[in-house]
Design brief:
Largest sheet: 7 strands, mixed
Strand order of the largest sheet: 7-8-9-10-11-12-13
Structural class: alpha/beta
Number of strands: 15
Strand content: 5-15%
CATH topology of the largest domain: Leucine-rich repeat, LRR (right-handed beta-alpha superhelix)
CATH architecture of the largest domain: Alpha-Beta Horseshoe
Radius of gyration: 37 Å
Shape: elongated
CATH class of the largest domain: Alpha Beta
């Protein structure tokens, strides 16, 4: 019995070892046939068995028994199947391709090397001259070049060790900011930004950043064609509302700016000078509304011969999406007396609907429905 038990253990260990050695792969461009057709095609032609296959979006995901089988399968990239060219990729345990994982690690390393935690500066200047980026082939094509910065920003947004207040993007051959526009999403609280020694020449290209960097204090744009435009300073102040220093020149009074963006006084519970005045005002409003509902003539004593009174009706009907809104309000009783200047165009009607003195005011009181 013990012998059979040992054999069972050996078999289990062998199976575990095979599971550990398995390589995860993906296949694209197979959709013109079934998944089973694809697996049989691979087995029949590449002599490689794909296990635990399943569909994830446009991919078929599965496993092969060894790295050697995976490498053998990669040689079949581009083979025709059901009218399309198959594409095989090696995946890590998270489903990312091996090449993608390497690129992420590489770009993360670049970010960390270029970050100074003491000054909270992320120095992304002169990326085109970076030997590591050149060797990696980042600038070998327009496609890879355009994807690099967004990828770096996505990584930066998840890297907790990067607490960035300043970014240097000088000497990057930038004609506009389309390639670096995601900077605003990654670092919305940026305080200092350098774009010096680039080729930016249009204000329109900067519009995507309008009001995005709400805490940007200093901007350096020297040696860009845009700086020679007579509207340069005006446009920069418009785009960045808290900008204080532009190209090493103070363009706003920082103390006044802070005053503008801070509340002039602490929020008070009441706006009355003292409790007695507050109580008197409350009593007046309460009594006025009570008499308006029950005996309007008694209110006439509050009006002098010079007092004026008019009614302004807003006949706008609220959207049906507003909860409990009245979609058929009855304005008929009020419209003939309404002096809403935005609705009444006749100067004569505007004058006629203004009541002056007790007698005239009493007349309009009587025309209004009881409440």
């Amino acid at each position: 019995m013990s012998g059979f038990h040992n054999v069972g253990n050996i078999n289990m260990m062998a199976q575990q070892q095979m599971q550990q050695n398995r390589i995860k792969i993906s296949v694209r461009n197979w959709q013109n046939a079934t998944m089973n057709d694809l697996i049989n095609f691979i087995s029949r032609n590449a002599r490689v068995a794909v296990f635990d296959a399943h569909v994830e979006g446009p991919l078929v995901i599965g496993y092969v028994n060894s790295k050697a089988e995976a490498e053998s399968l990669m040689k079949w990239n581009g083979v025709r199947f059901a009218g399309s060219n198959l594409k095989f990729e090696l995946l890590d345990n998270n489903g990312a391709s091996a090449g993608t994982s390497d690129t992420i690690s590489f770009l993360r390393g670049v970010l960390l090397k270029r970050y100074d935690p003491q000054t909270k500066l992320l120095n992304l200047g002169a990326l085109h001259s970076d030997p590591e980026l050149i060797q990696k082939g980042v600038f070998s094509s327009i496609s890879t070049q355009s994807k690099m910065f967004p990828a770096m920003m996505k990584l930066a947004s998840t890297e907790k060790s990067l607490i960035v207040e300043s970014v240097n993007l000088a000497d990057n051959q930038l004609k506009d900011i389309s390639a670096i526009s995601t900077l605003a999403q990654t670092f919305p609280n940026l305080k200092n930004l350098c774009l010096a020694n680039n080729q930016i020449f249009r204000f329109r290209s900067l519009e995507v950043w309008k009001n995005k960097f709400k805490d940007l204090r200093e901007l350096l744009m020297t040696n860009n064609p845009i700086t020679t435009d007579k509207l340069y300073r005006t446009e920069m102040l418009r785009l960045f509302p808290k900008l204080v220093v532009l190209d090493n020149v103070i363009v706003r009074d920082e103390q006044k700016l802070q005053t503008v963006y801070s509340l002039p006084m602490k929020i008070q519970q009441f706006f009355f000078e003292n409790d007695a005045l507050g109580q008197s005002s409350t009593d007046f409003a309460t009594n006025f509304l009570n008499l308006w509902d029950n005996n309007r003539e008694q209110l006439l004593n509050l009006y002098s011969p010079q007092s004026q009174f008019s009614v302004s009706v807003d006949s706008t009907i609220p959207p049906s999406t507003v909860t409990d809104s009245d979609q058929t309000p009855a304005f008929g009783y009020y419209m003939s007396s309404s002096r809403n200047i935005s609705k009444v165009s006749s100067e004569k009607s505007i004058q006629q609907r203004l009541s002056i003195g007790q007698e005239s005011i009493n007349s309009i009181f009587k025309t209004l429905p009881k409440t």
